[in-house]
Write a structure and sequence with these properties.
The protein is an all-alpha fold. The chain is built from 17 helices and no strands. It is globular.
Length: 325
């Protein structure tokens, strides 16, 4: 904030580039959004920190877009808000890509192409999104950024699955292996959330629960709050699918109380609000609102450590899943 108030755009971008990951893994990326927007508006010279500031801006922007999309179209200004966010998102993605190309920096180019894939993906143009992501992963590899390359390959696998959960679930072992090889536990936990959700979607509940339990263990070990909330949500979905409806309600209570206390949120994707709603609908529909509400209240009073211990017990004593055969 000091840099911004003194028109120090380049220094503000450098600070944002160094710190945006913290806002992201704690579920508070929207707090960085206005700061990144102001830093870019100061017109700093093109640099990799400027590209990373655009990336931080777009992470917050994606969260705002998801909120706007969830509002009823009849709500006052909802459609206008969504259209304006889409316009800004396109403009910022194009600006980011132009800067990265002018810099001839493969790290920046990888991130810019990664962001360019968002809109064709959302529109269902999976082939175009996959091409952009493949190009982005190649740029990251040229730059020697193995974790970034694996992150992009995760998204590429999602686009190539074209909404087929079984196909997606069968395509992620290599991505997990890449993250493990470079010692990136956040990448492993993130990919496990995608994998667990895909398995829950296609009825492989036991595998999904075990993968979510493994992801939750990693998130707890490394204090990845946002990814931990995602895995706890997926375990609530798993509990509901296994007819442990009161446990599902308690886990939902714990997650939502934690989100409120932290002032954070989960962004778009697996283990987010949509999965909480699915778990809530299934559990409340099975046991009724009164029993669900009582269990939910119990969960809100539980610590995240207590809830994690109970949730992981769904998977048995060993939360590490054997490879697919």
């Amino acid at each position: 904030a000091w840099c911004l108030s003194h028109d120090e755009g380049a220094r503000a971008c450098a600070l944002i580039a160094d710190g945006y990951r913290w806002w992201n893994i704690t579920g508070r990326i929207e707090e960085l959004y206005p700061l990144a927007q102001r830093a870019i508006a100061l017109g700093p010279e093109p640099s990799l920190p400027l590209v990373l500031t655009y990336y931080a801006l777009l992470l917050g922007h994606d969260s705002l877009e998801a909120d706007a999309a969830a509002r009823p179209p009849a709500e006052v200004n909802a459609v206008h808000r969504a259209d304006e966010l889409a316009r800004l998102g396109t403009q910022w993605r194009d600006d980011m890509l132009a800067i990265a190309r002018n810099l001839a920096d493969d790290n920046g180019l990888a991130l810019a192409l990664y962001c360019q894939a968002d809109y064709p993906w959302a529109e269902g143009n999976f082939a175009k999104a996959a091409r952009l992501l493949h190009e982005a992963a190649a740029a990251a590899s040229r730059a020697g950024s193995a974790s970034l390359a694996a992150t992009i390959r995760l998204s590429e696998a999602e686009t190539r699955a074209e909404g087929d959960s079984a196909r997606l679930a069968g395509s992620l072992d290599d991505v997990i292996d890449q993250f493990r090889a470079v010692g990136d536990p956040h990448g492993v936990a993130m990919t496990l959330a995608v994998l667990a959700a895909a398995e829950l979607d296609c009825g492989e509940t036991s595998r999904g629960v075990r993968h979510a339990a493994e992801g939750l263990r990693i998130a707890r070990e490394h204090a990845y709050a946002e990814i931990g909330w995602r895995h706890l949500t997926l375990l609530a979905r798993g509990a509901a699918a296994l007819s442990q409806h009161e446990l599902a309600a308690r886990l939902l209570g714990t997650v939502e109380a934690a989100l409120e206390r932290a002032g954070g949120k989960t962004g778009p994707g697996q283990g987010g609000a949509a999965d909480r709603d699915r778990a809530r609908s299934l559990a409340a529909g099975a046991i009724g609102q009164d029993r669900f509400g009582a269990a939910y209240a119990e969960g809100r009073a539980m610590s995240q450590m207590e809830a994690a211990a109970v949730a992981v017990s769904l998977a048995g004593s060993d939360a590490t899943v054997r490879p697919r055969r």
